[in-house]
Amino acid sequence: MGNLPSFSFGEEFKVFLSNLPVKDAQKLMWTIRTVENIGILESSRLQIIKRIEKNLFELRSIEGSDIQRGLYFHVQNNRYFISNGFTKKTRKTPTYEIRRARQIRHLYMEDKNDKGI
Asked: pTM score, two decimals?
């Protein structure tokens, strides 16, 4: 299948991932690899991913009582960028995390346009 997604990680997401307990980090990486293996549509059906707004999505990983999330956006073709991550403590995705993902997306796209990519 040529249209399976591929994720790259932003610095904030890498830091978040490295600070998680090993089991939680492994579960979140398993979630990412699952999306890469089964695709966006099936992942959405299984509620592994959720649309937050236009071109901003949430990866959903649950390990015990800890609920890890990563926010990502579409870059080009089948490429996606995970901007930031957080441990979800309430039913709603924190506004701060959404704002931060928007900022990172804006800077990423601006940089990409400046480089003519």
From this structure: 0.90
